[in-house]
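Hello forum,

I keep getting stuck at the same step: I have a sequence, I want structure tokens, and every attempt I make locally crashes halfway through. Rather than fight my setup again tonight, could one of you with a working pipeline run this one for me? It's a single chain of 498 residues.
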Amino acid sequence: MKRDVVIIGSGLGGLVCAYVLSRMGMHVVVLEKERQAGGCLQSYRRRGWSFDTGFHYVGGLAEGQSLHAAFEYLGLLRLPWHQMDPLFDRIRIADREFTLAQGYEAFAETLAAQFPSHKQALSDYTALLAEINRTSAEVLNPQADAASFATSLWGTGAYAYLMETFQNAELVDALSGASLKMELRKESLPLFTFLHGNSSFVESSWRLRGDGSLLVDALIGGIRSQGGEVVCGAEVVHLAEANGRLAYARCANGELYEGGTFICDAHPAIACQLVGQSRLLRKAYRSRIAGLENTCGMFTLSLRLKPQALPYFNWNQYIYRKPNVWAEEEWQGGRVDKLMVSCRVPNAGDAFASQLDLLTPMAWSDCSFWAGTKPGQRGEAYEEMKARRADECIALAEECIPGLRAMIAEQYTSTPLTYAHYTYSPEGSAYGVRKDFHDPLQTILSVRTPIPNLLLTGQSLMLHGLQGVTMTALLTCAELVGKEKIWESVFSKNKPTN
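Reply #2:
Ran it on my machine without issues. Output:
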């Protein structure tokens, strides 16, 4: 049976594409190599408890905000969302404390109270955040030209812009301290990536009462109710061609899935591997993809806490051992210098936290010498490395949560190796391809490929994060149904506002 669309990978991008296209009447199948769908949104269970790997909070869900219309269309607003405190991100840098507030005006005023001489600069910066949020949807408006606004920001370095604008290293640290949800790299990070990675959270910030699998299950339920298919344990090993186009996907178990269009939600390098040596994929394109660098990975320490040990806190805590949050971490078995602490929303009526996640960047080189072994069989040295890293994370977290170590009932870890295995992400990259403001045309990828019926989606193309991947998936869908239909169906009744 031939499907209209065959999607390789069930990360957020693949599931959003499948939901949108099946809702628009196409026969869609999603092929996932793992037994569990979801990519970076998937959770895992230990002793009856579920733990997240990549999802912790999301921005812009309130009516009229940047992600509201898309999530409403996808049926995701019905999930048990929980809005965070007005001061949603709290940042400790050495001995200084800073807070970020929800709402553009409150955001600027809160920081201006600590940096009064920069009040106008903060107001201008906040206006730029608001413009970024408007632009993220306008790229799908067939009547708008949002690309010209974004182009200059893609070609501007984030760190240089912040230093030139504010000329105050401490304020730059405060503005950047909640940005562990991206790779803070002075040498490459574009201003657009930095602004987009922070802007929707300033609109409003939300946690999910539950784990990321709620998002995955809701999308899969919608796909199937609309006639689509999601098949797990179906590892695609080859995309075969016929008559100048892709014809079918062949899985490791021998199953063939014939399709009219193919969408790859895996890393673009994986798409090239699946096509093999086909002449449909030009040598220049292969070379471009092969030359791309990947962002760093993430080490996550998931904690189950003892009952009534820690009161729930409705904000994220970021901790830096020393100033200059843009400094690249060189762990190599030493101290962890930067950390995000995220608290799982407890059951209704419970004032105490039951789960806590500690996250810190981790380079592939810190664990790549174990890359050739299988999960669960990596050896004593690997386990010792994880234990040292976990111990360092707890020690740093105790600067804001005294006595945390004594509150822990159980703990589990994941590393870039975990990401590489379960999300098919080269080098365990947490944010996909590394964008570089020096050469944005080389590192920002189109959803189109040289093969006419092969499209891409996912965090490696343009934008990462829930909002970025969702918007990218809508752009992928627009290649099949047109921007006009996407705009009319998703946004016209609920246009994002400033």
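The longest strand covers residues 256-264. If your local run keeps crashing, start a new thread with the error log.
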